[in-house]
Design brief:
Layout lengths: L2 H19 L3 H5 L2 E9 L7 E4 H15 L5 E10 L3 E12 L2 E13 L5 E8 L2 H8 L2
Parallel strand pairs: 1-6
Antiparallel strand pairs: 1-2, 3-4, 4-5, 5-6
């Protein structure tokens, strides 16, 4: 794969997460393939597999609502670039109802041949902590 394609994918991934972090769903969702899938592991209220742009938007709105709009990736620790994937390690925090969550998340995106994001996976450093914060 040409180096330009890889750097383009890195830039797209960075734009996507910046848009999501700033609650700019319109521009963030435009970077997704129409058939994109997001996978959030666990047994908490926001866990599941979300297929298509509409379901992903609903999930993100639920995230913003559930965290009182306080979701913030306050430190991007590392970016990793592969042939079809870009991964980001971020320290995040959010709070609601007097509770605060801080943790590290590995955010992974996979690209299709047209450089649209076709799969998103979020992995948590401490799954139980996320589940306690978000609830069932």
């Amino acid at each position: 794969m040409p180096e330009g394609t890889q750097s383009t994918r890195m830039a797209i991934a960075q734009q996507f997460w910046a848009h999501i972090g700033h609650r700019d769903l319109g521009q963030g969702i435009d970077l997704l393939s129409p058939n994109a899938t997001a996978r959030i592991p666990g047994s908490h209220a926001l866990a599941g597999t979300f297929a298509g742009r509409d379901e992903i938007v609903r999930h993100l709105r639920d995230l913003y609502e559930r965290t009182g709009g306080t979701f913030d990736a306050y430190k991007w620790e590392d970016w990793m670039l592969g042939e079809n994937h870009v991964a980001a390690l971020a320290s995040v925090h959010f709070n609601t109802n007097g509770q605060m969550y801080k943790g590290r998340h590995l955010l992974l995106v996979r690209f299709d041949i047209s450089d649209k994001i076709e799969e998103i996976a979020v992995l948590f450093e401490d799954q139980r902590s996320v589940e306690r914060f978000l609830g069932p």
